[in-house]
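Entry 14. Ran structure prediction on the chain below.
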Amino acid sequence: MTVRQQPQLVRLPDGRQLAFAWYGPPQGVPCIVLSGMPGSRLAPAWAFPDTLLAERGVRLLGIDRPGYGASDPNPQMTALGVGEDLGVLCAALGLERLTGRDLGRRPFRPGVCGPLAPAGGRAAAVQPHEPLGVARDPRRHEPPQPPLLHPGPPRAGAQPGGVLAVGKTALAGLRGDRERLLARLSKGLPPPDREVLAEVAADPGRWQRFLDDTAEAFRQSGAGVRGDLAVASRPWGFELGEVSVPTWLWHGTADEDVPVAAARRMAQAIPGCQATFTDEGHLMGLRHAGEAVEAIRAATGA
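Output, structure tokens:
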């Protein structure tokens, strides 16, 4: 797997460009990966081993959400707007076009890891890279569509200060000093997350891809983070109870970035949600890549 995936671009109806990159075997089952905050199209390169993708026959489509990497910012971005962008991308790539405006009617199969749940029952305030409420329109007979997967951000957290600190640290002079940078990034993490981050750092190639992903996420000086925070203050526009397709959720009880209680409420609100809670932290998704890939295959019947 290449360390630096050059972006491919698609032009959106409003003139913006959306950047993406493919990972895994060309004939593999496609899955759209929307990374955490911050994150870019390069996230699959370090979050999912290429050998795993090859063995399981899964192909990942990494996305630069608006303001990240090579994708233009969208000052008017909403959670549903992210879905509209994906619909254009799917059509451009020859995947089945998404149907309708309501995200709750889109024929996707979602999987999320460490998601920030909305308050109450309405999807009202959450990071846009957690595309919940993606359901298939029962009035149509369409083949299963590429699942949406959120692999979990590298210590993104829910607070803007923590997010920006990750980017600034990785882009600063410590980037070339792995041990000092690891110590800086590990500071304040719960033990499970420190262990996962150390595992990433122990693999020089994976560590480099992690740093490349973080640097790419801040290519536009935090425009993506600012956009995420703006979206987080707006309503999602649908109810979690409207989700009517298989949905997978993973969350660690030691997660200090996103409260596990919120994830439990989300799992209860989504009909038939297959939730897994472990004693791990926010980075637990990096140890459950195999389960995520199996969920993708199950969602598509592959």
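The longest helix spans residues 79-92. Will compare against last week's run tomorrow.
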